[in-house]
Amino acid sequence: MLPLSCVLIAAAVSPLRAQLTVSQLELTITPSATGRVIASFDVRNAGKIAAQAILTREDWDRAENGENRFAASGSKGTSCGALVSVFPMSLRIEAGATQSVRVAVESAQNLSKECWDIIFVEEQQQKSAATRSALQYILRTGVKLYVVPNGLKRDAAITGMSVETVSRRSAKTTSPAGASAAKQRIAVLFTDEGQLHLAAKGRVEIRRLDNSLAATIPVAEFPTLPGALRRLELDVPISLAAGSYVALALIDFGGTEIAAGQLELTVP
After folding, report:
1. From 1.10.10.10, 3.30.450.20, 3.40.190.80, 2.60.40.10, which CATH number describes the 5-147 domain?
2. Which of 1, 26, 208, 224 could form an S-S bond across to 192 if both were Cys, CB 3.0 to 4.6 Å?
3. Segments making up each domain of the chain, as ranges
């Protein structure tokens, strides 16, 4: 999800105030083989004066940790390119009013894979008298667009798991620099092996050697793009008693089966 991005373009101290809000942050459109398909989202001016915005398109993907990465439109092989058009590309919205933005997907008889873009709604700041302490922001909200033809395969797998030991600073310490303690973290590698973007969630069960449940670590919902690898890092509960366990990862991605993986875990 990309709720808001802001770019600082001058230094000083005035507060950030956004007037424009967007009705939805994701659009999924299934194209037609015979004609154009149109969807829309609304931009509302919640401020007390008229506001202006420009719309731009970019390509994007995610790093393994889930961080969004942006690139020039049409620069990636996953871009929707000329298949998609957006109208209007500039907005002037009176205070309290709402305006719709139309997203059109042309007929795509031979489209065999998903493509994705992002549409930025960039608010244009009102001109003000310059001061030595003036601060100017560029505010933009991103609407992620997925164009998904029918018949694509949904599949995923846990392709790796490992246990890592990391340091953590103890809350109770007598030394000025602080004391370091060790904690364990389970890394789960989840790979989208299908042709559709996924929203997955699940849990990691920590089981004793007699298969009884010792602890459960929830995995909050996370998105993954087709073909992408997502690295999940989950802290082992510090309340877990010393001993030998099995960590069982179970991730529900909306397919016919749940992605599963396991490893041995030793708590010192």
Report:
1. 2.60.40.10
2. 224
3. 5-147, 156-267
